[in-house]
Amino acid sequence: MHHTVVISDIHLCEVEPGTGPWMRYRQRAYIPDAEIARMLDAVRAKVRGDALTLVLNGDVFDFDAPRVVGTESVFHDLPRSAEHAVPAVAAILDDHPVFVAAIGRVLADGHEVVIISGNHDVQLTLPEVRAIVAARFVEAAAAALSDGSSAGPASARATLAARIHFRAWFHVTRDGVLVEHGHLYDPYCSYRYPMAPYKRGRREIVGTMGSIGTRLLVSRLGYFNPHVESSIMMSKLGYLKHWAQYYLFTRRSISLIWAYGTARVLLTLCMNRESACEARFRGNILACARETGQPAAAIAGHARLFTPPADETIFRCVRELWVDRVALGFVSFVLGMAWLAYAGLPWGLLGLLAPLVALMIYERVYPKPPIEDTWGRVGGAMRQIATLHKARAVIFGHTHNAEASWENDVFYGNSGSWSAAYHDETCTKPVFQERPLIWLTSDTRGELFGGLWTWKNGVLEARVVRAQPEEEIVPAPVSGWQTTAAAAAAARESSAVLSRDGSAGTSTQEASG
Questions:
Q1: What is the pTM of this model?
Q2: Is a pLDDT exceeding 80 seen at residue 95?
Q3: DSSP 196-230
């Protein structure tokens, strides 16, 4: 049997050396490495004797996070080139030895590892970055072999390296599972040419609005957690409360950070704008065909599904950064004060309401699209991609929201997130009580089964899973795997439901420990 396990959006970065609420989500106590290692060890134990492809589906590394220099985090917007990306990824790997060792054990067992570029680690398209990541994983695998095998690490290194595959855009497994990060359908993170997302004529990656905004704005607001939407996308009252709690009585100024950051973001986006190029489009398709082995015609149709980058419509960027509303509020305030000076009391007081009235009218005429619209567009592309590639499963990441369904014998899933996500700045309340992974298996008859699983309290639990035909989904007892009678009964019931209606519908198993 062949197993495909997909996780994404870990956002590994250099560990914050400080303490306290400032950038607490980057501190060592909150990184997910140990849990990922335990989960992967449980998976390895389950698939022993079978083939496994572990897919790290984008945003595994976060090149947009602050660098650590000495004993403090340093904000930056360094060029996205090999010169700066190589030391950055080396430092990240140095700070996450538990994660690296866990990947090494997967390779040492004879399995394959696929690493797909996301919007925060698009630097993985650079050959120099790929080389150092592969070398570190091979080193970890060789160390695991030397501890538990008679095969010497020197003789095994070439074989180990051959099991590591990098993908700039998407990957298709031998049994028809297509895995892609999903950012190319998000206007704030999209690239026209994901195989070579460089500035024209240069080996420097173009910054998207999402990447530039993270570096110049979001990451500098260190009391926000960029991995939690509710932390950075608050209401007007929410932003006011956040300012009063964390900035009002300090020397940090949220308004200056916003003004400086938005000005630089918009300026950079304007400088980076380039018109579409048909020759580069064709080159992108051919490069992907060489890397993935997929037909060029299907890849071309796939590429036409991309959402154009936001910088093609600067007003969209202005709207997202709140520049329009701040400008309107300021102009309305000035006009209101002028009216107060002209009309005097008491009628002049009505001018003080001008900013509020203007903003209410503006929001009604030009409502800001909710983020759910973007996530819906990301998910909607999956069905078209499945048709183009005749895929048996399509798996995305990017949104941090784990989802899964079986539709007409095709699986659609989102691998969610393993990032350090907490509801509050004190990191006392995690957003996710469980961590998601997509696990699909094809048997000797070519049947595809499995789906969305979660890692919770040291065990793997089924969430949206298609049972193996005529077999129970719950395996023999293995450390780290939930194998209760209740789970077995749920699996039998799932199989019965599928056999009664004759379709590959969605069966949900939620077995309690």
A1: 0.83
A2: yes
A3: S-B-TTSSSBPPPHHHHHHHHTGGGSTTS-TT-HH
How many other CB atoms are there within 10 angstroms of residue 19's CB atom? 10
What are the phi and psi torsion angles at 55 (to 5°)? -110, 120
Q: How far apart are CA 496 and CA 468, in angstroms?
A: 11
Tell me how far apart the alpha carbons of residues 51 and 66 are, in angstroms, rounded to a whole number: 38
First to last CA, the chain: 27
Strands annotated E in 109-215: 112-116, 164-167, 170-172, 177-180
Q: In DSSP terms, which residues pair with 180 in a beta bridge?
A: 170
By the 10 Å C-beta count (0-12 exposed, 13-18 middle, 19+ buried), 38 is classed as: middle
Torsion of CA 126, 129, 132, 135, to 10 degrees: -50
Instruction: List the one residue out of 400, 410, 453 whose CA is nearest residue 177.
Output: 410
Note the pLDDT tens digit of each residue in 240-293.
Answer: 776 776 776 677 777 788 888 899 999 998 888 888 889 999 999 999 999 999
Packing angle, helices 127-148 and 97-108, rounded to 10: 70
**Closest by CA position to 40, among listed 113, 94, 91, 145:** 113
| pLDDT for the residue numbered 222 | 73
Per-residue pLDDT for 308 more than 80?
yes
Query: Are the C-beta atoms of 161 and 138 separated by less than 8 Å?
Result: yes
Residue 263 CA to residue 436 CA, distance in Å, equals: 38
The answer to whether 218 and 234 are in contact (CB under 8 A) is: no
- Tell me the average pLDDT of the chain: 83
Give per-residue burial for 326-353: e unless 16+ CB within 10 Å, then b: eebbeebbeebeebbeeeeeeebeebee
Q: Taking a C-beta distance cutoff of 8 angstroms, is the pair 31, 5 a contact? A: no
Evaluate whether 443 touches 466 at the Cβ level (below 8 Å): no
What's the maximum distance between 2 C-alpha atoms anywhere in the chain? 92
pLDDT digits (tens, 9 = 90+) for 351-381: 888 888 888 888 888 777 776 777 777 778 9
The C-alpha atoms of residue 412 and residue 385 are separated, in whole angstroms, by 11
